[in-house]
Amino acid sequence: MSQLNIIDRFKQVQDFICKELEHLDGAAKFQEDNWTRKEGGGGRTRIISNGNIFEKGGVNFSAVHGPVSELMRQQLGLNGQDFLATGVSIVLHPKNPYHPIMHMNVRYFQLNTGEYWFGGGIDMTPHYVDESLARDFHRELKKVCDRYHPTFYDRFKDWADDYFYIPHREETRGVGGIFYDHIKANHGVSKSDLEDFAIDLGELFPQLYSHQVKKCGNKDFGDREIEWQNLRRGRYVEFNLVYDRGTKFGLKTGGRIESILMSLPKNASWFYDFSPEKNSPEEKTLNQLKKNIDWLD
Amino acid sequence: MSQLNIIDRFKQVQDFICKELEHLDGAAKFQEDNWTRKEGGGGRTRIISNGNIFEKGGVNFSAVHGPVSELMRQQLGLNGQDFLATGVSIVLHPKNPYHPIMHMNVRYFQLNTGEYWFGGGIDMTPHYVDESLARDFHRELKKVCDRYHPTFYDRFKDWADDYFYIPHREETRGVGGIFYDHIKANHGVSKSDLEDFAIDLGELFPQLYSHQVKKCGNKDFGDREIEWQNLRRGRYVEFNLVYDRGTKFGLKTGGRIESILMSLPKNASWFYDFSPEKNSPEEKTLNQLKKNIDWLD
């Protein structure tokens, strides 16, 4: 286990990710907003925009603590008096429709009762699904999972399929990834392993994104691809505002709105009753927004 | 009371509104999609797009009936075995940022137990608030309300302020209007009066919209106004997906998605931590997105 506490390690991960993503972008730099929470703690929101690669993205760190409020008791079923919640959250919206939206969140929660848990995940939302790139993405996630427990990838991959799902569209948000929540030490995985796992995912994130961009290259695109990108971003907005637990909880509990909603794209579109042309790349993508695709096969 | 039943009257209102709005637009025509609901009933969704005035808009009629589902029992607290729900719903998103978004909904619900109620409302969301036009809007709403009950305007205006509110932004959606729900015959207002009130609101709607457009004229706009329009539309999306009861209920109960989400604009934007210039028209608008403004004063 690291000598640093988890809060400092999350801060370092945020620093590392921002540095790597700036390097990849080559033009834009993150702008930082520091904020504090009246009841205790605060965060560092970092936003990148109008870059070579990134149209809009955020890499947020936060560590908040204080008394468990009545709302938290009701919504989260918490029993303790005081809590600490810390984590790193990322959403990247690229300029080029052939580059994917990518999301990561790693978080740690503890109560004064001694209870604690970890949660997190990484998932990818390509505007156009490239099977080979989706497989690369899942393969790298599996490697990190396998370092901690042989069941992690399978369990967390299925969990992501279920979590990043838009029931009213009958679509997954993208090609999935991994998602886990309320995980404690168990089956030979210690608390410090879970902490290391979260840090490893953080360190993996910029590699995953770079790989997608480098293998795809800066492919040409026009109005058609931008319209489709904006339609897919509209679905992303629907997921985040209607289903994402973190977003909903943040909105209800008066979290810092601009940090919560940094996940939304600069532009999104809704076209009435859009249906893609037969055998088009857009139709092919829609057919791959399903649960239970084995991306390792 | 009309000889027609309320379903036929709502259909006629839809026809009237579409004809008037097409006339105002001068270019675009509504496209109709008829749909049926497996459990009973259906609707006529009519969409206008790429017009002179309207970038995207919908005027929907529906009349659905059937057994009260377990979900309806839970979500709506209904007691009967069978229900009928019918209504007309409109959202208009104009091309010109100086023209307002306008919404209307009038609806009637009944159970086989004999219980029934009316709900509805009209509210306006200018991208740029023009006080004189907001006053005209409220004055016309008051006239119709006053024909039915002296308390209607005040009650329903306050109700709209509370309903069309975005708590996480601490903003109203626009300049409000009127909203009412679960209204039955009472205080000398009969059931047939409530039906006539709904129809009158429907007939008023195109007049209200025409007035806004004609008084404003086709004012010039550029990139700045379009960016602001898209930001305001982003707020509209936030309201509809996070708070609007009809939208949430529709998504949960497997309603026809394209009819429910026709309320969303063609384009919307999210800019991180946007704040308008001091004394700009954008700042002036933000200052008027508050509850309890007396627009008749």
Question: What's a quick, concise take on this entry?
Answer:
Two copies of one chain form a homodimer. By secondary structure, chain A is an alpha+beta fold.
Helices and strands in order:
Two copies of one chain form a homodimer.
Chain A: H1 6-25, E1 31-36, E2 41-49, E3 54-67, H2 70-76, E4 82-94, E5 101-111, E6 116-125, H3 131-148, H4 152-163, E7 165-166, E8 171-172, E9 176-183, H5 191-216, H6 223-243, H7 245-252, H8 257-260, E10 267-269, H9 281-287
Antiparallel strand pairs in A: 1-2, 2-3, 3-4, 4-5, 5-6, 6-9, 7-8
Q: Specify the number of helices of chain A.
A: 9
Order of helices and strands of chain A: HEEEHEEEHHEEEHHHHEH
Helix fraction of chain A, binned, reads 40-55%
Poorly predicted runs of chain A:
none
The whole-angstrom Rg of chain A is 19 Å
Whole-number mean pLDDT of chain A = 95
Reported CATH architecture of chain A: 3-Layer(aba) Sandwich
Q: Can you tell me the number of structural domains of chain A?
A: 1
Shape of chain A: globular
Widest sheet, order of strands of chain A:
1-2-3-4-5-6-9
What's the assembly state of these chains?
homodimer
The largest β sheet of chain A comes out as: 7 strands, antiparallel
CATH class group of chain A: Alpha Beta
Structural class of chain A: alpha+beta
Determine the strand fraction of chain A and express it as a percent band.
25-35%
Q: Would you give the CATH topology of chain A? A: oxygen-dependent coproporphyrinogen oxidase
**How many E strands of chain A?**
10
Which two protein chains have the largest interface (Cβ within 8 Å of the partner's Cβ), and how many residues from each?
Answer: A-B, 31 and 31 residues
CATH superfamily of chain A: Coproporphyrinogen III oxidase, aerobic
The separation of the N and C termini of chain A measures 34 Å
